[in-house]
Amino acid sequence: MSLLGQLPPIPDNRPILIAGPTASGKSALALEIAVRHGGVIINADASQIYDCWRIITACPSAEEEAQAPHRLYRHIPYDARYSAGHWLREVTPYLTGPERPIIVGGTGLYFNTLIQGMAQIPATPPEVRQRADQMTREALLAELDPETTTRIDTLNRARVQRAWEVLTATGRSLAAWQDETPPPLLPLEQTVPVVFDVDKAWLNERIARRFDLMLDMGALDEVEAMRDRYDPTLPSCKAIGVPELMAYLTGDMTLDEARERATIATRQFAKRQRTWFRARMRDWIRISP
Predict the structure, then answer these.
(1) Which of 53, 67, 76, 163 has the fewest CB atoms below 10 angstroms from its CB?
(2) Based on the domain organization, do 110 and 222 belong to the same domain?
(3) Which residues are annotated as a binding site for substrate?
(4) Is 242 a member of any domain?
């Protein structure tokens, strides 16, 4: 069923932002808009940038990519460092390109950098990152200032580690850097901002079905192909479903256990996304499948 009926008329000259939790159907809406109204679909999901995954991260299929142009999907090597700053630099040319950008994904931080601006924080020295990689999330969190902890997802290790690295490398908190953020590249009022606000039970059922579909489509083969390069400390190898299926392939877990744990992890992740979007995207157009 099309969700276009829940949207207001779409001006020809406005970029479209589509955010939502995993498995909510946001990519299908982006494709429908691109096919009907034109535009280039741009990825705003941190798990879909790596070239080693297509199925396990639910990237657009080859058939979907043939229907409309897609950008910033599967374009980064599995072991490359990538941040919201990298994404912002890569998305910038598309904001003034010949085709309307339709920016879709589940990484709220990417949208924030676009519509709120991004602090000009110096790069993290390798030795600081190496120290952070060896610390637990709890240890990293314990050293952060209260203001920063109110602004980040404290259950997301990558966000906690980033805040710790900034504090350690610069001597200033992430919150302090954020308070000096320059103007945004794309103010919210210049866009058509859409966020999926979905029922929990409906989404959990979709998540379970989708993981089984991924297995049917060859997710296990995709993970097997990365076995020799697998590094659990890399962001690419932390994509939900990857550690679980790798544990099955190495004999540390049954396939049923891997399926269950991946499904639970996805549900927990979706819950954090829904909470984040509801708190920070109050002015967006809300749609419900």
Answers:
(1) 67
(2) no
(3) 22-27
(4) yes
- Name the token pair of 197: 């606000």
Distance CA 95, CA 104 (A): 14
Binding site per annotation, positions for ATP? 20-27
> What domain range is 142 assigned to?
126-178
State the pTM of this model: 0.85
Q: Are strands 101-105 and 285-287 parallel, antiparallel or unpaired?
A: unpaired
Indicate the helix (H) or strand (E) that contains 287. strand 285-287
Give 258-281 pLDDT, tens digit per residue. 999 999 999 999 999 999 999 999
Q: Same structural domain for residues 110 and 19?
A: yes
DSSP per residue over 117-186, as a string? ----PPPPPHHHHHHHHTS-HHHHHHTS-HHHHHHS-TT-HHHHHHHHHHHHHHSS-HHHHHTTPPPPSS
Q: What is the pLDDT of residues 52-66, one digit of tens each?
A: 999 999 999 999 999
